[in-house]
Amino acid sequence: MEYQLTDKYGDLDSLLHRLDPRTKILTTVAFVLLVVATPPSRWQGYALCFILVASLALLSRLPLTFILKRSLVIIPFVLVIAIFIPFFKPASPGDTVFSLGIWLWNLSVTKSGLLTLFGVVTKAWLSVLSMILLSTTAKFSDLVKGLDKLGVPKVMVMTLSFSYRYLFVIVDELTRMRQARDSRNFGGRWWWQMRSIGNMIGTLFIRSFERSERVYQAMAARGYEGEIVTLSHLRLQPIDMYFGCLFISCLILIGLFSFLIA
């Protein structure tokens, strides 16, 4: 079975696709740092950051519905973690929006808590938008090569590379196990189903461990020394310098506007 997580639109021809992966990685990190550093009360900064990332999305020629659907996936996970912030933010006089009495507890929702919740959700969403543009405008192998060239520890780079490569193999293995289970008239009470699912998880772990040993032995026999070898070579072009300077300049202007003017 064939899966596509990030390389589905990696062959498009756009300005972002032609950039060196190192340029995209560094500019994405700078964008995320600016978004994280922007205080929740500076909503103008968030608006400018959104305009910037939306402009890049248009330049990338990626389907906007694809970007939007992928970015909204993070919202439920963020809300699960941050939904209680408005209730536990210390209340000051005149800061309480409304109070909710639950048995022996009196929970108060504060304006500062709601503002913090807005900041957390917005920062997470904007960061995910930038990461989607990074991961979908370049081949995953090129991104891994870029991380290696930027000096990221080889252990982290190789772990990321192998995890992505063999994730599809594990999914295929799980699909075959599920088909075999269903062909044997899977059903019964919930405790019987849990027992069967538990056995599948244990079997999948053992098979994955054994496969990793075989893969390592095969790679070691072929002279593997921990280096990433790809057919393409990364080269910085003038367009990378122009884009990097322009993008960083936009980030500086947004930061100045957010912290000094707004």
Which helices and strands, and how do they pair?
Elements: H1 15-18, H2 21-37, H3 43-60, H4 64-72, H5 74-82, H6 85-88, E1 96-102, E2 105-110, H7 111-136, H8 140-149, H9 154-183, H10 190-221, H11 238-261
Antiparallel strand pairs: 1-2
Helix pairs in contact: 2-7, 2-11, 3-7, 3-11, 4-7, 5-7, 8-9, 9-10
Give the gist of this structure.
The chain has helices spanning 15-18, 21-37, 43-60, 64-72, 74-82, 85-88, 111-136, 140-149, 154-183, 190-221, 238-261; strands spanning 96-102, 105-110. It is mostly helical and 262 residues long.
Describe the sheet with the most strands. 2 strands, antiparallel
Count of the domains: 2
Structural class: mainly alpha
Runs in which pLDDT lies below 50 for 5 or more consecutive residues are none
The overall average pLDDT, rounded, is: 81
Q: What's the number of helices?
A: 11
Major β-sheet strand ordering: 1-2
Distance between the termini: 52 Å
Order of helices and strands: HHHHHHEEHHHHH
Per DSSP, what share of the residues sits in E-state strands of 2 or more residues?
A: under 5%
How many beta-strand runs?
2
Query: Roughly how many Å is the radius of gyration?
Result: 24 Å
Percent of residues in helices: 55-70%
Shape: flat
